[in-house]
C-alpha cells in the first residue's frame, strides 16, 4: 500500500494507492486541483509551492516539490514522473 501525503504545512494524507502507479494518480489529482485553484485565484502562482511524498510504510519512495504554472494548461505530473522512471 502506498500513501500520498502533502507535506506542505500542515502535513496531511491525501489518499492511498494499491500500487505505486495508483499513488501517482492520486498525486496527479491533487496537483490538478491545486492548479485549478491557482487559476481561479487570478493572481497566479507567485509564492505558491507544494511538497508531496509517496510513502510505502515508513519509507519515502518519491517526493515532489511543485509550483502550478498558471500561464499554461495543466500538465500531468504523473505522466512526467512515469516518463522519468522509464530511463
Automatic annotation (TrEMBL):
Superkingdom per UniProt: Bacteria
Name of this chain's protein: Uncharacterized protein
